[in-house]
Write a structure and sequence with these properties.
By secondary structure, the protein is an alpha+beta fold. About 20% of the residues lie in helices and about 35% in strands.
């Protein structure tokens, strides 16, 4: 009888041990879906180039940043996109499809920003959560110098209109590459704009933008007619004459804290 009880206990231990081994193997080979979903986060590094973000209509989408960010959207998306900004995470829900739109996300209390190309449609996406980090570049001493908005505006005006032999130089200022295409600067649809040259100092950017009147009536030039966020905006002339006349074009000098294309949509 004792031998039978001992044999019974050994069989039970044997079964318990091997059952535990089988459970562990199954857990490794077939992890639960809820566990894997916690790791479906796409990590992206921002290095001064716009990051493309695609959002599926009706599906909640998370954007995670390293710190709290100001997430402003243009009026064109106000009825197409739901935005909830909580701490360092922005929750997006596209209500309708919309084409690629450039957004500038600015760090709260700092001048650093991240540029996104946001788009929405019905196509399914692999990731519903994206974590964006800035690239870690080694700090180097800046060779740029600080100048006031007035000094930057005078410099830009001379560069655009002065004869080549009289062009002034300005230490600590570098020329900045401009995008080949940019959104319209003026709120007036008949005033066309084209950035022609831009420079950067230690704290600011200054950009000269060509304005042209495509209408048949004169246009008064005022800062309130311009889109974007500018420290100063200075017009070379106060008005544009009708198309075809000598004064139908002019230049505006814009000083900003961000590069021209970012300041224009911010």
């Amino acid at each position: 009888m004792r031998r039978f009880e001992q044999t019974k206990r050994n069989i039970v231990k044997y079964l318990h041990f091997h059952l535990g081994v089988i459970v562990c193997v199954l857990a490794i080979l077939f992890p639960s879906q809820s566990r894997s979903e916690n790791f479906d986060v796409l990590e992206l590094i921002y290095s001064d180039s716009p990051i493309p973000i695609y959002v599926q209509v009706g599906v909640p989408f998370e954007l995670r940043f390293e710190s709290h960010m100001e997430f402003g959207i243009p009026t064109s998306l106000s009825e197409l996109l739901s935005v909830e900004n909580i701490s360092s995470t922005v929750y997006l829900t596209a209500l309708q499809p919309f084409p690629k739109t450039r957004l500038v996300v600015k760090q709260v209390g700092a001048t650093q920003s991240i540029v996104l190309n946001l788009e929405a449609g019905y196509e399914e996406t692999e990731f519903q959560t994206v974590a964006i980090k800035r690239s870690k570049r080694p700090q180097q001493p800046s060779l740029l110098l600080s100048y006031s908005p007035v000094e930057l505006t005078r410099f830009a005006a001379k560069q655009v209109f002065a004869p080549k032999r009289l062009l002034p130089g300005l230490k600590g200022l570098v020329r900045v590459r401009l995008e080949s295409t940019s959104p319209r600067l003026s709120r007036d649809p008949e005033v066309e704009s084209k950035p022609i040259v831009s420079w950067r100092s230690d704290e600011h950017y200054v950009t000269a933008v060509m304005l042209k009147n495509s209408g048949n009536v004169s246009k008064a030039l005022e800062p309130r007619t311009l889109k974007g966020t500018w420290v100063t905006s200075t017009f070379h002339h106060s008005r544009l004459l009708p198309q075809g006349k000598k004064g139908y074009s002019s230049v505006v000098y814009l000083v900003s804290e961000l590069p021209y294309d970012q300041a224009l949509v911010h």
